[in-house]
Amino acid sequence: MGNKLAHKALCLCFTAIILTGCGHPTTSISPEGKLTVLELTKPNQTINSFEDNWIFRGVVFNRLVDNDVRALQLIKDGGVKALQIKRIDSDFLMVRKTSAQLVASPYLSWTWKTNGPPPPFRIVIGFKGGNQKADKWSLSSMGSSFPEFDRSITIVVKKEINRNTIVSVQDKRAQIIYGVAPYLAGIWKTEVLDLHELYARLWPGDRLGKSKVAFIGISVNGADNSQTALLKSIFLSR
Prior knowledge:
CATH topology: Jelly Rolls
Number of domains: 1
Oligomer: single chain
Helix content: 10-25%
Distance between the termini: 36 Å
Number of strands: 14
Structural class: mainly beta
CATH class: Mainly Beta
Strand content: 35-45%
Order of helices and strands: HEEHEHEEEEEEEEEHEE
Largest sheet: 8 strands, mixed
């Protein structure tokens, strides 16, 4: 039942039509082979800077950082700067445009922490170019600023022994359970996932060499029982 709710919430996020602006920058691979999606190293960085670099759907950005809601907040946790993500009553999606060949930078990493239940966020990744059977997919319902994609994966972090359990594959979208055992509450943890290997398992007939990572982001399910979690970084590497 929980998996069905999570998939339904993601679909709602993907079909929302709320826009927050155009012309968001694309983050690319550095000479060292790293693509930074989230990194909180700038001393004067504020939560308002996210509106310039991230694309939001489902809930307008101002509501997410409102003093009465605070779904997104930059905090210090034991001296570590982190993005605090709190569940609210509405689903929302936030992504960054990326430009990276899947085969060249296949490893997705994120560093997170929670003090109790599983995190309220899911990691979402969009791909473009590998699905040779895809017609030109109309993304008008998501707005002109949203990056085009022909495949997407949602990663749900749960307390499970088995990692990378495929929950569903529906046309262009797939959902997997990323098992974390033992579940270390209150401790920073870095996860590393081979997107190339996972993509090949999900869509073995696709052209892997042609697929690019079009966006990486976070979705939050308003119907979830989870409350709050911290994210320190998200990046791709080779």
